[in-house]
Amino acid sequence: MPSNTPTAAPSPSPGSTPASACPTQTGGSSGNRALLPAVRLAHHDGYDRLVFEFHPSRGPGAHGAPPRTLALPTLPQGPGRQAVTIARSAIIRVRFDNTEAHDQSGKQTVAKTDIRSTDVTPNTTVVKQVKIVEDFEATNVWGVGLDHLVCPSVLTLGGPVRVVLDFATP
Fold first, then answer.
1. Are strands 119-120 and 127-136 parallel, antiparallel or unpaired?
2. In the chain, where does DSSP find H-type helix?
3. How buried is residue 105: exposed, middle or buried, by Cβ count under 10 Å (0-12/13-18/19+)?
4. What is the average pLDDT across 26-38?
5. Do 97 and 138 meet the contact criterion of CB atoms below 8 Å apart?
6. Among 13-27, 101-115, 127-141, 148-162, whose mean pLDDT is lowest?
7. Which of 35, 36, 84, 130 is the most exposed place for a label (fewest CB within 10 A)?
């Protein structure tokens, strides 16, 4: 079982490009499909933790961690390539395939009653904004605005299925 303690992720070194300092990360399984009802963010001693929680979906496929890609975008864009504004000095783009953040009627499933909003401006050290960029045709894209570039360490947990991003703080 994976530990809940984050491990240090690479930080950019002088002279490196952001993409080489923080390479694209992938994971999950293309055979899995999930519903995203919760996104949580909190500061802990030494790191900011962003959690994407997944529940079973009505769509085809097994329940489990869906395919994911974490990358540094050149420019945050929504469907149709419209620009998306995210408060940041750096951005991590989190993409989940085979995932919906809405029910069959089109109603958003990500709760807006606590930190689980489509547009969150948190009281955390490194993560400055979390914003949904796309929820269309089983693709769910989030922009994570950062105070400065910090590559997250990624954990996949079960019971319920969660993808956890830990951003080290000074």
1. antiparallel
2. 18-21
3. exposed
4. 93
5. yes
6. 101-115
7. 84
pLDDT tens readout for residues 95-138: 999 998 876 666 666 654 333 345 556 778 999 888 888 888 88
Confidence band, pLDDT 50/70/90 cuts, at residue 45:
very high
CA angle 50, 55, 60 (to 5 degrees): 125
Contact indicator for 10, 22 with CB cutoff of 8 Å:
yes
- Cβ-count burial of 113 within 10 angstroms (0-12 exposed, 13-18 middle, 19+ buried)? exposed
Q: Per-residue pLDDT for 157 more than 80?
A: yes
Please name which of 157, 163, 128 lies closest in space to residue 143, comparing C-alpha atoms.
128
Q: How far is CA 67 from the centre of its chain?
A: 12
Is 168 within 8 Å of 156 (Cβ atoms)? no
- Whole-angstrom distance, CA of residue 157 vs CA of residue 170: 25
Residue 13 has pLDDT above 50, yes or no: no
Gap between the Cα atoms of 102 and 48, Å rounded = 26
**Can you tell me the distance from the alpha carbon of 140 to that of 35, in angstroms, rounded to the nearest whole number?**
10
How distant, in Å, are the alpha carbons of 92, 104, 134, 151, 154 from that of 25?
11, 30, 19, 10, 9
